[in-house]
């Protein structure tokens, strides 16, 4: 190919990529501020924030769903960390029999299609009156979150130099004090990353909430689905945008953590 | 250093109990439920009903997931390949910034985006009309199996591409440079030198994407509710509208078999690769 042709070709291909990746997001953004948009107009005939007002009305269902989703995500994050910090520490530092099997066990929820499992959780929860309750949804989200939080916590603890803990012990600190004043602070960045990850997974979770939570526990993804099924494109688009913001913010934040070299180690 | 054996077990037990009770137990429940009727007697009737009602949808699910995997593989190798072998710094920087955006966009948000973007009156068609590539009376919507494939590829390509690009970046540049000096084209270097060395990473990414696509309910539910549909939608229908756990579990069993087959394919591939070394 001649050099003169290279840049036009690059521009066309990159333009196509940009269009395919950002087009759907742009379409979502436009719909959120479209008050009237009729076929075959290329753009809305009436723009405005009327639907934003509907969504953000303090008494509205959307705000209720948003706070409920945030509350569930916070509880899920707390539960996941409470379970995964001890487990991750033991997996990284302790003398655990069957260590590879245990690690694999925590990976299982990711290795099976989750939907049939959620169906049966809902059936089991029925006997315990957990369907349609916040604790029920939190439990389902926690199992899903444990996959990430245990693996990331294990990696975070394993990355700490044992000599640092040894030094603290040599200076007379007990095992608990060494853990809370040396090990935990050093592992904190990794643990925070896993917490954010679990929080977002819970915030966006649809399938488990659909079977265990609906219709009593109406999280934001369920509200989005109902609005879309009801043909209310603007409300659905605005709900989608609200869910989008934390995810994109996180992406820009963790770009440092998400180096391809680390991702390449997955599954090895 | 570190906790002893008993304390280690004690620290791990709470998390293990949660996974056992809320994942392993319901998983076993679904496996057993696939072979039981409503009264709890052993039967293959659930599979008979699943075969009668959903054999088309099962084939449909396999086709959608395989086509998506093929496209994801193609695009992630193309992206990774350009990031590794591309000559223009500027183009590489733009691509590197652009391609990973869908990675963090939740499936349900992606589904809602696509409901408008690839609909008959969506921005894709309108843009094609604007550039004169399509005529207004030619436009058609893609809210069917093609929309599901489009959304899956859109959402999963960055994930696999990130893994593949990372593996490619870690390759020994010397062989690539040597091939270049011998006059091999970049496409040939990509196909014959780079891709074979990252095939393991690519396979892991594809198997993970396969399981993900078999699990996601929101995308097929929101993009194409009508028949034929994916097994996830069928299972939700059996539960929410008919209350038929038996058939739903039989369909769940079928989806385990599919992912099991994908995992087996990957493992066999890995074995052969190791044996060849």
What are the segments of chain A in which pLDDT stays under 50 over at least 5 consecutive residues?
259-268
**Count of helix runs of chain A:** 12
Instruction: Kindly state the number of beta strands of chain A.
Output: 2
Going by CATH, what is the homologous superfamily of chain B? MetI-like
CATH superfamily of the largest domain in chain A: MetI-like
Task: Supply the number of structural domains of chain B.
Answer: 1
Give the CATH class of chain B: Mainly Alpha
Strand content of chain A: under 5%
Describe this structure in words.
- The complex is a heterodimer of chains A (268) and B (277).
- By secondary structure, chain A is mostly helical.
- Chain A is built from twelve helices and two strands, in the order αββααααααααααα.
- Chain A has a two-stranded antiparallel ribbon with strand order 1-2.
- In chain A, α5 packs parallel to α9.
- Chain B has 277 residues and is an all-alpha fold.
- Chain B has a single domain, classed as MetI-like fold, CATH 1.10.3720.10.
- In chain B, α1 (5-33) packs across α11 (245-276) and α2 crosses α6.
- The relative contact order of chain B is 0.13.
- The chains are: A mainly alpha (268), B mainly alpha (277).
- Chains A and B meet through α1, α3, α4, α5 and α6 of A and α1, α3, α4, α5 and α6 of B.
